[in-house]
Specification:
17% of the residues lie in helices and 42% in strands. The protein is an alpha+beta fold. The protein has one domain. Helix 1 packs antiparallel against helix 3. It is globular and about 55 Å long.
Length: 283
Amino acid sequence: MKGLAVVALLLASAANAQQTVVFSTGNVDGRMGMASRPGGAGGTGRETADDFVLLQATSLTSATFTGLLPSGSNALDITQVSIEIYRVFPLDSNDPPSGHVPTRANSPSDVAFESRTSGSDLTFSTTSLGNLSVANTVIDGIHPIPGQQTAGEGPANGAEFLFNVNFLTPLTLADGHYFFVPQVALSSGTFLWLSTTRPIVAPGTPFAPDLQAWIRSTELEPDWLRVGTDIVGNGQTFNAAFTLSTTVTASPEPSALVLLGSGLLLIGVVARRARASSDRRVA
């Protein structure tokens, strides 16, 4: 049994599983906070979506996203986190669409393709990043045409948090174009997903076409509005702050293989000596 334990320890050192970022939109730019919360006690639901591309089939095992909680909030005020993956319209959608929004071209689809929720198949932790002010917000001003362009609801101050999410059941996606939608429920107030620059710049992962962030309310479903072009106007467009990661098992280093071989040889020597000692006692 001790020998097996040693083998297990050596194997663990030889194979090193690491989280590797496969996509990132880069750093928060402070221009926009976009509501994204599940429906329920905190009010009607809001979904904000930003897109990403996978160049090959990938099993996503973790993600991060950055958002604003109301001033004075802390991690204990977070009651639920969910992640949804949407494909690009017209997949998973009625086509033609309702006509209640300026366009559905390049929008998320009507319904989610995949989802994970805390308490079942998702765990999360948070890191406080201090206080932050954003220049504009979109929370309730989500309306069908012709009243969609409200210019936003003005600046907001709050507590900036980085959310680290682990998928207990990985999100296994084929290569393709998708939208990432995080939703956060709070005991009080609304979570705002923070914007990043568009187009994406380093340390993000530039790609084309980089679609802008979209948003919808429960009342607007299944349709979506572009946060920048449709709601804010004035030529502004936004991405949102998130990363996606997969688990990569690194190849054992030569030194680790030598250690493993030495350990196995030692176990064999010990086992032979033990058998020889046992045979002498029997004789």
